[in-house]
Task: structure prediction
Amino acid sequence: MKYFLILAIGMLVIIGSKAQDTTKGPVAKPVTTKEDSVKPVRRKTELYRETFKHVRRKFDSTLFTTIDVPTTSDYAEDLERVYELLNRVPLITESFTRLTEIDNQLDLEDSALNVLKERMSQNDRTLNIRNLQMFNTLLDALSGNVRGYARTLNQYDTALDGVRKEIAALRKDTLILHIFRDTALKDTFQLQLQQMKAKWRQVDSLVALNGNFVNALKSEASAHTITISDLSYRVDQALKAVGSKAFGKERRYLWEPRTNTGNVYSKNSFQQSIASEQQLARFYFANNRTNRFWLLFTGLVFFFWIWFNFRTLRRLDKLKAIDSFHFSFVNPHPIAGSLVFILSLAPLFDLHAPAIYIESIEFLLMVVLTFILRKHLSRYLFYGWCLFLFFFLLLPVIRILGLPLSLQRWAELIIDLASLGFGCFYIFSKRRMGGQLRFVYVAAGLYLLLNLLAVVCNLFGRVTLSQIFGATAVYSFAQTISLAVFVRLVTEAFLLQIETSRLRKGYPEGFDLGPVSKSLNRFAMSLAIILWLIVFSTNLNLFDSLNDLLVDFFSTPREVGSFAFTPGGLVLFLGIIWMANFLQRFIAYFFGDTGDDAAMDDRGQRSRLLITRLVLLIGGFLLAVAASGLSVDRITVILGALGVGVGLGLQNIVNNFVSGIILIFDRPVRIGDTVELGDKKGRVKEIGIRSSTILTEEGAEVIIPNGDVLSSRIVNWTLSNNHVRLALSFTIEKPADPEAIEPETIKDIVRKNDNVLDRRDPEIMLSAISSKTEELKVFFWIKDITKTSYTTGEIRTSIYRHLDEKGIVVT
Result:
């Protein structure tokens, strides 16, 4: 027993000595990896299990206590978090993709701002008004660009600040600090610390470089903002001076002697003027591409629209069908017409474009019009047009030459006087212009008045007003001629579309041209007047003032009780409603439906058009509500007021409106159906929102409210098909031989008609009326009820002829 106790005590001593050293274990071999590796190849647990270097340490009695002490895995996880941050920094800096682009754009804008400053510092001669307006627009575009750059740079700077804060937080991380202070932990994570130092240097370099680049660009953007603000103020002051000082004496009277020599014209003035104009124009176009893209897109759509319609007519071999329209500006190759269309709309897309751009556009438009009008004007008028084109070219040439102001004033005076003489010669000539060219007298009268004002202002030292009136005289007359061609061009294009659609659907070629042409001409004329007024007010330097005044008026909130609204929102609401109503009225023209009887047989198209009109009205109302900014609760109030109105006196209107919707979708009656409604019988010509129209056989159009249509008993002869059973009655003398009538022959006569339904055999009924007369009745079905009279007439004549051949007397 004693030996057993000694053996047990010995085993306990051995076990206790083994338990004192818990850190001893096999030493892992270091794993060689690439020094600058960014992404770990192995998983975290495998990496640290293979790279931990365990060092024998003394027995730590705290292992058996309840105090939380970081373990090796805690240090490893903290290092992993540091690695994740350092690996994320290159990804963040790589997302700064616009730094180079912003740098290049700021350099380009800097050169443009330098040109603007140089142009605004030229005090030897007055600046062109249109160029001042272009400067304003260009500065607005530059300001918007700089604001965009600043937003992007601020985003980049915020991202870098976040990185800096996270890196700064690492300096306070106790676990990381403990690793660097503890020799054993340093030895354990030696490889990881070496990799982290290399990664740290890379990250520090990236943050520093990108931070310096972003800060430099932000400084440059701020400098541009200050410069743009200063130039905008100077341009605004110059534009205000045009209005406030233009009526005062700016320069000496033209007949007074010069007090100083002024600037001498140099050989480089022309080249410098052209270079600055081109540089500003290039930068303006580079920052305003969207408008010209839509202008070009609109012109291409117009070109292919006309070309496609002519191709359709050529394919149908129906080109002669449009000879009666006598088109002047629409042809199978509408290149010139499309150019007129684009160039006439160009000022609307670029109201404040550079003067050289507007002058180039107008000159190109004049050239195209010369090519077109040479076929439509007499030689006398064509020579006058060419002379006007010559005067048109002189104004921009004098401006671009960069002449001293005194020489420029004399040159403009000579041009204005020559224009006055030219206008008087053609207005007061005995060879009067008639017909559609009478409107030219109004434009020519305005041309004379503006040139006269330009001469007077130039003589009395009002140079700015003289330039404004002289340029407006030329541009307004040219715009009048071009818009006259534009109106005719649009009208002819729509008429071509109507005729092509009718021929494509098999409708008759002819239709009532007068009302359709009048409606289209009214629409095109309204658009042309709006364009002319915009260009005219822009040339007089009134558009910006009027625009600011109208914007201020329409954007100012108004209150009526608790109801708040803006006049602009109300006008926008009514404008969209009007546009939706306009489209639903004229959309049928695109499909060849001019409202005549020819389209009534195409029930499917009429029904689709009806649904399209309803969708346009409802969609227009919803779009108007959304665009006007009216809140839903305000709309609820309006609908409530409408509900009260319905209860007081609008029951019939709402009843007819709802009945029209039911007729559209339930379709008990369709356009083209032959119906009987009360004592009226005819074909349904139209189903509107409020009423429907029935065309009787006599040609009368009966308008019936939709509520009455649904509440009355309707007999629809063509609801499921166009078949109808007809009966022909003949009173004949009783023949001696009843077989002489030959009923089978009569049936064959009926069957031979193309409109008779084959699958239903005709029926013959013979009944005695008296001892000497009998009644012969012939029953048969026809395919199309609209050809009832024509079919019965043919069959009746054939039966009469048959009975006469058999010697049977019809009484």
Remarks:
- Confidence is low (pLDDT under 50) at residues 18-67, 261-265.
- The chain has 25 helices and ten strands.
- The two ends are 157 Å apart (CA to CA).
- The CA atoms of residues 573 and 627 lie 7 Å apart.
